[in-house]
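Model: You mentioned two targets. I'll fold them one after the other.
Researcher: Yes, keep them separate.
Model: Target one:
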Amino acid sequence: MVTDNQKEIKNKIMKYCFSGGQDSAEEQRKYGANLDVDVAYEYLRYVMEDDEKFKQIGEDYSSGKLLTGEVKNTLVDELVKLTKAHQEARAKVTDEIVKEFMNPNRPSLAKFKSIGKDRKLSHSNQ
């Protein structure tokens, strides 16, 4: 999904996310959704940064104020933001950056090498 565009993300969410909503809009408005089984709502729990907005969605969805499609569209919006940020960051990674990251002798790892040596010494003294 991290390489998908907005249309692909929306198609996957609308097609594959199991809903805890009712069979019709009328029933949904009357009975609300079962949040315990709603996949889109559960995904929102992990990707939505605004806890108050997430809480409000849960209240509105379970009471029937929101329909399944609205919750799924909110999830799509959140996933598009997340994947777009990932795609932009990934596009900035060059072969040189990968090469340096994979270098076991890079300076940023020096402190970990000294920790490993200290541990070996302490274990050999026991």
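Model: Target two:
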Amino acid sequence: MREYILMLLDPNEAVRKEAIEQLGILGTPQAVEPIVQTLQDQSKGVQQAAMDALINIGGKDTILYLLPLLKAGDAALRNMAIEVLTEIGNQALDLVIPFLKDPDEDVRKFIADILGMLGDSRAVKPLLEAMADNNPNVRSSIITSLGLLKDKRTLKALLKALDDEEWVKFSAVEALAQMGDPRGVKPLLGLMEVKEDPICYAVVDALGKLGDRRALRPLLARLKSAPRPLQNVIIKAIVNISEEMGCYPFSAPEKENLVRYLVSGIRSDDPEIQTYCLKGLSEIGNHSCVKSLLKYANTLNPDDESWELVATALRNIGSVHPLICHLKTTDEPLISLIIKVLGDLADKRATLPLVRIYERLTDSSQQALIMALGKIQDPRAVKLLLQALKDKDGHVRAEAAKSLGVIKKPTAIPALIALIKHDPYPDVREAALQSLTRFPKYLSLPGIKELLQQPEPGIRELAIKGLSYLKTGKNSGAAEYLEDLLRALADPESRLRKIGIGALKDYPAEKVLKPLTTALADKDDQVRIAAVISLSELKDKRTIKLLISALEDNNLWVRYQAAEGLGKLKAREGVRPLLNLLQREGGPHQIAAIRALSSIADTRAIKALGQMRQHEDPEIRQAAIKALKKLDR
């Protein structure tokens, strides 16, 4: 330790800092005094190291050395002492509390602050006793600390402080808000009646934080006589309390009155107040607000957080007519907002007005309009949607296809099939396919069969996907889909066979075991992998033999999936073949075999798994250790 103390005198800052850190680690009381002296070092880094070290050492000795520094003439030194004491002071509270009676009023204030930040309830009684201090700054700090301690014993003293000097009164109001005790509401309401006193702002803020419904009507009544800045604080409090309650418990006339102030508030220069007003309008706004909301939106950037708040308010208000009237605007972001809200409202009164403005919109707004029509689901929009399938913009075509799938008017089927056949973009084709499969099966299946006969592999691939979308053995007519799907398994394109094989997992095992068995001999690795995965997903004991045979496949990933499948089925018949696979070097399939043996939980695997703990591959070793732990349970 002596060596480190000598290092504190080194001219090199890094050396001094290192010495302090080492002394802090040693943590001996003898190190405290030299470390405290380094708080006056010229280097900020050294000072910070000293504070960290003192916090680490802690204890009575450290506190005894720091308390006198509260009287230091150097403000920075005092602040460092306060910072450390707020971390360790509760380790020797009996040394700290007496300083509440120190002759120096600044020291008394510092101690009051420290006791509040320590958060120790043992400080409540001495703080209450110190409330008779003749210095208002000290009393203010005491009250602030009592608020932080949130002890119900302090309520009477805090209420009494509401009659103290103004600065103390402010602290009492804030402390009552911190306390969260509903008994503070009534006295605060009485204080709010003071017309021009600045304390009124603090009172309103405190009432908002307390969240008690008793404050709502007095706050609403105070709006009328309040200057604009105070109105903003009142609005914030009303919204806070109402959100806390989950409702705005006002009568219709009261709501109408509040709405006027909320509408006025969105014109405030304060973004926070604008946000609160928008939240309020989302809950109690009416048709009279729509024009003001749109006017406000016109001042925003669509990336602004308030943009979505405006949209939410308009949706919740739900007034379609004023939104339709504003479709004549030429402002691009604003019209997109209106279109989106009309779509969300899904009111068929908006259909024809939307259709009429389509041609004059930009591509992005046209896309939004097409999406809106899909949400509204009005057959009167089909003509425009069919026209939009030929739009030059792929995004518009895709959205038109999706919307037609939602409306499900049969006249759209030929156009969707044509889009699948001829559109150059895969995402547009996919959108058209998914929409086609949303129609009743008797309408969509003939179209998919037609697509299966197309010469282009990409179209046949989509048709097979379409069959898998229709699929599932639970649906009536599933056998008919399966018949077409099985025919697709003979496709010369391997990727199409793979997709078809993958879809078989959703059909009854008795109907698909034979084609899956055939697929295990396919010349393409990916098809065989898909076949093994589908066999595993069937979760049928009849697939065990097939999965065991797949363990002999010459492709690593076929073997891997076969082992995984036997593990899922917990197939004891697979233990010996899996043990054999375990001895076949190759990495991933060995790990899959280990996991499968772990799931099957057969003691025959313990010896082999134990040997795998010595394997040169760390992943295999880890898998074996994990499996053995599982088997030990």
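Researcher: Noted. Anything on target two?
Model: The mean pLDDT is 92.
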